[in-house]
Amino acid sequence: MSLQDIDIKDEYRSLIDNVVKDFYIPLLQKASEYKRAVGFFSSSALIEISKGIAGLAKNGGKILMVASPYLSDDDVEAIRKGYELRDKIIRRALVRELNEPKDLYEKDRLNLLANLVSDGILDIKIAFTEDKNKMGMYHEKMGIISDALGNKVAFSGSMNESATAMMINYETIDVFCSWKNQFENEKVNAKESTFTSIWTDCEPNIRIIDFPNLKQEIIDRYKKSTPNFNIDEQEFGERSVVLETKTKYRLGAVIPTNIKLYDYQIEAIDKWEKQDFKGIFDMATGTGKTFTGLGAVARLSEKLDDRLAVVIVCPYQHLVEQWVEDAKNFNIMPIIGYSNSPQKDWKKRLSTSVRNQKLKVRGRDFFTFICTNATFKSKIVQEQISKIKNNLLLVVDEAHNFGTEGIRNLLDDRFTYRLALSATLERHNDEEGTQKLYNYFGEKCIEYSLEQAIKEKKLTPYKYYPVVTTLTEDEREIYSKLSYEMSRNLIKGKNGKLKLSKYGEILALKRARIVAAAKEKIDVLREKIVPYKNDSYILVYCGIANVIDDNQDYSIVDECDLRQIDVVTNLLGNELNMKVSQFTSKEDIEERKILKEQFAKGEQLQALIAIKCLDEGVNIPKIKTAFILASTTNPKEYIQRRGRVLRRAEGKDFAEIYDFITLPRPLDEVSSLTIEEMKRDISLVQNEIVRMEEFGRISMNAMDSYSLIWEIRELYGLNDRDLEFIQDI
Prior knowledge:
Number of strands: 24
Domain Helicase C-terminal: 524-686
Protein name: DEAD/DEAH box helicase
Largest sheet: 9 strands, mixed
Organism: Crassaminicella thermophila
Keywords: ATP-binding, Helicase, Hydrolase, Nucleotide-binding
Domain Helicase ATP-binding: 270-443
Strand content: 15-25%
CATH superfamily of the largest domain: P-loop containing nucleotide triphosphate hydrolases
């Protein structure tokens, strides 16, 4: 969180600018300290100073307020007659200015301030001028807002902290930022030096009185209930980063009042707690896995009085950003760690947070770090995690990725609390890696299937259309040669079963590319998509055969992948004159955000042509019709792809999925094959049948896929036992 992230003007004028929304709220939400001299002390000043400070309170910040008493002529005369009565008269003048709130907004704001005073977050001192026993009013108006990184904004001018000054009078403030240039930095330092001198009662001719009784008066008069930290959102439409809870305001994770978890989500969290906060959330894609995970973080945070460090790990950059967006709703302002993080100083932030927690700095006992798998593996992150001696929670999204040898060794006893999230924790052809995950994270706390989610209307129903395409003769020849070479590169694994060697895995990748990029798919796509050329909310998924490496935090797209997506883009955009855009790792976070917004409107953008997005956790609920050209034999991948198409959205009664099934040859040629030729076909055929069965069994039109499956099985002479033991080659 940095003040430098905000566009700050040099000057604000009250009848031109919305000073509260444009200045106070955004700055204070990123601040760690707020020093303010407000002129006259009053309940109105308290109300106005409350605007935006919920964010500061969440950051564990501190507010120092200096104000002058509003003394009547009688007050001044009484002080002149008896100097010993000064404090009593000033206190009476201060209390006189504490008026009853006029409406619910004022009531909530004064209650908020009273709670902050009660908890020592807001401190108030009274200032006045004094020269040769003559007393006057300190009437300077200035402020210094600082963030945790040392950035500071100073402002001064004619504006009082009062509703009249903010809304009616023509008032002005001048603003200076410490990072802009030497002149402004000197201005900021001068303002802060003056404030510090006043606060510590060192400024010539200005006296300071610390009135404990005044603070207690504020508490007694205005502290009524749990503070409403959503008051800025309710009054100005600006979301505060600190949320209301059932007990008192919190500095850790909180389930917001505007998000209601379903019963199955709460039951999962309950069981996780019973298992000593260890376990697995096995939930179908699109069923609220992230919110359930954040709800679990909030439960543990509350249990530990917000003394908790949370590390959330995701495989991809874009998935990290989605977690960040959702986490903010749960009162979490995370440190964001990956190679292209918008927080360029994330390493420093992480180090500072670890140090603050170790030193038990007030309000800094809770912090959250969200990163990619690759960043989690890095030396600097592992060193920082090892320094954390307090409560530490590890949350791993798409946890099946943590089963690889390169990363599962980092799963150790440093993490007292553990949570794995995955729609499919079982690793494809890796029993050892799967077992390691279960041994570390523990038992499943929930198993919420896609079938159950559709039945309970958490996901939308769908129609499934398997679309048969075949390899060309050249493609089939290359496929057969690769299959033969793979059979010569089998080795015995630790469990005694045969598996592919490293070179065999490279061959498998090449063979998968032959299937994924089958030339006939383009011609068939042209035929199938024409009836939809005037529709919107279409996804064409090209996919890639690349598997993400543990040391990468985004998927790599090579020339082969781009050739296919470029051909599809030309087909839809130029031949069919559709409004389309590519959606790949080449587009940065901001570009993706714009594309998603345009796609959701359905006017300027009809179709997204994507690579890998359905595997990266990108949330695009509006997708209604999906053409999946990418063939995969990995259940984890195709189950995820289907789930992302089934997210509910307004006006979306059901989804349609066109799954391009790739067979070695046209079905009418199968009957003339020799036994040897049929054996070479069988692996690809079996894998495609398994996917069709999985997609088709809970679709609205299951008979369409089953008719095709029965025809293929009969032609190749396959029975149920054959399909139970799918070959890898």
